[in-house]
Write a structure and sequence with these properties.
CATH class: Mainly Beta
Structural class: alpha+beta
CATH topology: Porin
Order of helices and strands: HEEHEEEEHHEEHEEEE
Number of strands: 12
Strand content: 35-45%
Radius of gyration: 18 Å
CATH architecture: Beta Barrel
Largest sheet: 12 strands, antiparallel
């Protein structure tokens, strides 16, 4: 495992601070606030610490306040119900006593049943594409010097866009985008860790899907952007250290909000997870 990936795995490995209470560190990814995917991944990990022999099948979370990446995050897990095959947990994330996220996570005993899915869309494979880091190096001369290191740094999640958008000179485009995702280096054989890493990674690029038709990106000036809620459904087993295609679309934007949907497929074409998110995409002034 690469050092940068090991640090992410350690970030998701929460410290127990009391009965069903946990604490996680924060990381600075160059955003004004804590990266939402970090809180999602840590919240799911916290919930999993109270469940045995059941894997996550869904999570639904609301972002309530911006998080401070200079402070740790406290997670409280509430045991809502343990049934014969399902367990539900409520998780509250706090900084300085104030809630920054609340969510519900549901876990299920593995079982067999009816099986169908949408087909994986046809796209170039990851080996044919450049990474976000490659495009960052191309853009580096045109961004302020203090931002270049963040743009070109090694990242634990490698992302290879199928049809990359110019962050500095975006053109309006249909509300669809696709990228291949993979954690760098080999990961432990822990299915829960892979689910938490997918939760972490699922927030990358997602909000930007609803910006595409309007010719702006998250780097454009005059915008107020924030994730409002985020949902994930886990369908089939997968590994985050193997390539997954993230197929995203945005059916609607209105009222200062953009709605986004996503599907994760493995290279064999299996639909392994689905996502949905509504985001604030407000023009300033």
């Amino acid at each position: 495992m690469l050092d940068v990936t090991r640090r992410l795995v350690e970030l998701l490995d929460l410290a127990e601070t009391g009965n069903d209470h946990f604490q996680g560190d924060s990381e600075d990814l160059g955003f004004p606030n804590v990266f939402g995917g970090q809180v999602l991944g840590q919240a799911l990990m916290a919930a999993s610490r109270s469940v045995e022999n059941r894997g996550p099948h869904s999570m639904h979370a609301y972002f309530l306040r911006p998080g401070n990446h200079q402070l740790p995050i406290d997670y409280e897990v509430q045991r809502v119900r343990d049934g014969g095959t399902f367990s539900v947990r409520r998780v509250i994330a706090r900084q300085r006593g104030k809630e920054i996220l609340t969510g519900s996570m549901s876990f299920q005993v593995a079982e067999e049943g009816f099986d169908h899915q949408f087909d994986k869309p046809e796209t170039p494979g990851p080996e044919e594409l450049g990474s976000e880091q490659d495009y960052g190096k191309i853009l580096a001369p045109d961004v302020p010097e203090h931002k270049r290191a963040k743009l070109t740094r090694n990242r634990p999640i490698e992302i290879r866009p199928v049809n990359p958008v110019s962050s500095l000179q975006p053109d309006p485009r249909p509300p669809y985008q696709q990228s291949w995702f993979r954690a760098r280096g080999e990961l432990p054989d822990d299915p829960m860790l892979h689910c938490c890493l997918l939760a972490y990674a699922s927030d990358f690029e997602f909000l930007g899907t609803s910006l595409g038709p309007h010719g702006v990106t998250i780097l454009s000036r005059g915008l107020q952007l924030a994730s409002l809620d985020h949902a994930i459904w886990f369908h089939r087993p997968f590994r985050m250290d193997e390539w997954l295609l993230y197929d995203m679309d945005s059916p609607s934007a209105s009222g200062g909000r953009g709605f986004n949907r996503g599907s994760f497929y493995d290279t064999a074409g299996r639909l392994v997870a689905s996502t949905a998110q509504e985001a604030l995409i407000r023009k300033r002034g």
